[in-house]
Amino acid sequence: MVATLEVDPIPQTVLEDIGMQWHTEPDGSDYIVPELVRVTESEAEAYYAAANALYDMYVEAAQYVIDRGEYERMGIDPQLVPLIEQSWERDDWHLYGRFDLAGGLDGLPVKLIEFNADTPTALFETAIVQWALLKANGLDEARQFNNIHAMLQANFRRSVVGDGVDFEQAYRSEKFLFSSIAGLPEDERTTRYLQQIAHEAGLYTDFAFMDEVGFLEKQGVFNRDQQRADFWFKLYPWEDIAAEEPELMGILQSISKTGATRFFNPAYTVLFQSKGIMAVLYELYPDSPYLLDTRYEPLAGKAQVEKKLFGREGENTRITGADGQLLAETEGQYGHHPSIFQEYAPLPQDGAGNRYQAGVFFAYEACGLGFRRGGEILDNSSKFVGHLIDEPGSA
């Protein structure tokens, strides 16, 4: 059973002061649960090791797909292929992603559920809010697996000058533009938080909403003042740009080819984002302790989860038992995508029957842990729960 520690919540006024407007659910309940999951040092180390090992496997699986041109199998729009291959060959830097993992608590093994590699959410909650919960409750702020802020600072520097290069010697005056969709407070706060980290890392930064950004073929991406950005971070999925803005895709292909503006997260992360790559992972690494049996066809005689290749927030998900009986199902907007079938892995539960899914952020290496709490299928009504690493010998 998941062990938790009840704590005093952070007042909503304080959350709003730091820019977190999405603190209350439509039913009036708190999105940030006033408790902390108690994690042992060995459990935290297991999450760290799993995410690092999985990232290396994802890189190998992506190379496998690229070498064989198996983009259709991944459900990837053909318009994205040139961008994927250019960003991969150029070795554009992956800023950050989030692994969703089952198990890791109460003796359950850590298992990969999926990798949110392009536009992962819950960054602000994991990096800032759960740390603030410790501080507000007089707990030791160091007792968390949470080094996201510092790791992202270092990764922003790597993205501009390269790995192993002295930033102070190599950086000149390149500009990093950050964009999100107007009217989405969570996306905007996440993006502005990333901009803050980049600024603290020593980069020149600016922010513009997606509809304020300018694009010129071969010349690059421009801010509201018509200044060209050397790097552009957009918190908007690559697959949605391809589906909704085909004309823009042609311009972005041209910009990518010239390298006038580099895109982040890079387009190759759509390979990681596609849940189809988990079937490739299982083909390549069937004996990995972190992988669940995952295929493009239903699994005979196994409890399993059917997911859409590009589904989000638990939409269009079905759980069936080993006998084929439907156990849980959600509707959504992703039903037109093909499916993959992944062996069912139980999520650890607390005494009230709430299920907990770990999220481990990755920026050069695994660097932060947080939890989502909800029902059998975690959807957009799930809560965020922070964690506390128990001191050795504590009960």
Tell me about this structure.
The longest helix has 28 residues. This protein folds into two domains: 310 residues, no CATH class; 40 residues, no CATH class. By secondary structure, it is an alpha+beta fold. The chain has eleven helices and 19 strands. Strands 1-2-19-18-17-3-4 form a seven-stranded mixed β-sheet, with helices on both faces. Helices cover 31% and strands 23% of the residues.
Overview in brief:
The protein has helices at 12-17, 41-68, 81-89, 123-136, 148-161, 167-170, 185-200, 238-244, 246-258, 269-273, 277-284; strands at residues 4-6, 32-39, 97-102, 111-116, 175-179, 204-207, 214-216, 220-222, 228-229, 231-234, 262-264, 294-295, 304-308, 318-320, 326-329, 339-343, 355-363, 365-374, 383-389.
Helical stretch count? 11
Tally of individual domains: 2
Strand content: 15-25%
Roughly how much helix do the residues carry, as a percent range? Answer: 25-40%
Overall shape: it is globular
| Sheet of most strands | 7 strands, mixed
Mean pLDDT: 95
Low-confidence residue ranges: none
The CA-CA distance between the termini, in Å, is 14 Å
The gyration radius over C-alpha positions equals 21 Å
Give the spatial strand order of the biggest sheet.
Answer: 1-2-19-18-17-3-4
The helix-and-strand class reads: alpha+beta
Write out key terms for the chains shown.
single chain, five-stranded antiparallel sheet, alpha+beta, 11 helices, 2 domains, 395 residues
